[in-house]
Prior knowledge:
Layout (H helix, E strand, L loop, with lengths): L6 E2 L9 H9 L19 H18 L5 E6 L2 H13 L5 E6 L2 H10 L4 E7 L22 E5 L1 E2 L4 E2 L10 E5 L16 E5 L10 E6 L16 H6 L9 H17 L1 H21 L5 E2 L10 E5 L3 H13 L2 E2 L10 E4 L6 H17 L1
Parallel strand pairs: 1-13, 3-4, 3-5, 5-8, 8-9
Antiparallel strand pairs: 2-10, 6-7, 9-10, 11-12, 12-14
Helix pairs in contact: 1-6, 2-6, 3-4, 6-7, 7-9
The structure holds pyridoxal-5'-phosphate.
The site of pyridoxal-5'-phosphate has 12 residues, from helix 3.
Amino acid sequence: MANDRVFNxxxxxxxxxxxxxxxxxxxxxxxxxxxxxxxxxxHRSKTYLKIFEDVMARFRKIGNIPDNYKVLFLQGGxxxxxxxxxxxxxxxAGKADYIITGQFSKKAADEAKKYGEISIAYDTADRxxxxxxxxxxxxxxxxxxxxxxxCNNTVYGTEWNYVPDVGGKTLVCDMSSNMYSRPxxxxxxxxxxxxxxxxxxxxxxxxxxxxxDLAGNAxxxxxxMLDYAAQIKGDSMHNTPPCxxxxxxxLVLEWIESLGGLEAIAQRNAKKAAVxxxxxxxxxxxxxxxxxEARSRMNVTFRTESDEMDKAFxxxxxxxxxxxxxxxxTVGGMRASIYNAMPMEGAEKLxxxxxxxxxxx
Length: 361
Ligand SMILES: *Cc1c(COP(=O)(O)O)cnc(C)c1O
């Protein structure tokens, strides 16, 4: 770690690998002898198109994306996809199933209600979103066009450890906070989307992976920018794409490759999470919020018995250079986001802080 950097546990925008920032810094005024910054290039220029194609190829290779899926690099955030998904997929059935396991899947369902009949296949609100439903708990409507879920719940710190079986129906996943944190089988999904600012790149880039045959059925009033068919046709360049963020994504992907790809990243992430959960579980004062089998490897939510003590711990961690461990405003307590770019050292330091605070209070 450069010694002026803190361990930043922010839920998003979040840490980027130091190597990526340094490389971007070294190229910021003159990319590869072009005499200009990537920020200043036409997205149609030869130099930029080469960057774009390389990033796309690397993204597909690392994620093992099958040929019948298109990858789109868009703007608007995951929240824009909350509308784009029903606009593109809900016709002609006019209905869809949503599994609610936290704040973002609830928002996705609320947005979708504007475009069709939404039925809630399960809602974990009964226990403050501290768990993930079992396959047998899901109530699926046979007439639904698709089933939507969110596989890592950033606010509550829960993560699905299985892919729901939706009986051959189109499965749609909000993967904003764990995309490329572990291998995943794209062929099980119809659409996967993610705001990039948690695990992949700066805010402003939205990644959509869509099975090609699902595009082309958008509702008639769908804005062209939200129409998957139009974006596929334009190769993500129906208008100006988020050029610089795509370039940074490329650097992050090179970094993932240098560590050994998604299997290696997954092992690293599992170790980081285990170190922190172990410290919480073996303490007197702290407890994890998520049920053990639903614990997220990306967002560790935990608390003590009182708001005052939580506050004291957050201050204590801050003094040790561990920043942004405060929980989401409606949940309280602590949340440590440990996405790909968080080094093992950061997880160990946080575990040390938990043990030290536990001993001294
Ligand atoms: C952050 C987040 C969102 C919202 O993303 P935006 O890009 O800000 O729209 C949606 N879903 C999940 C799971 C998230 O973590």
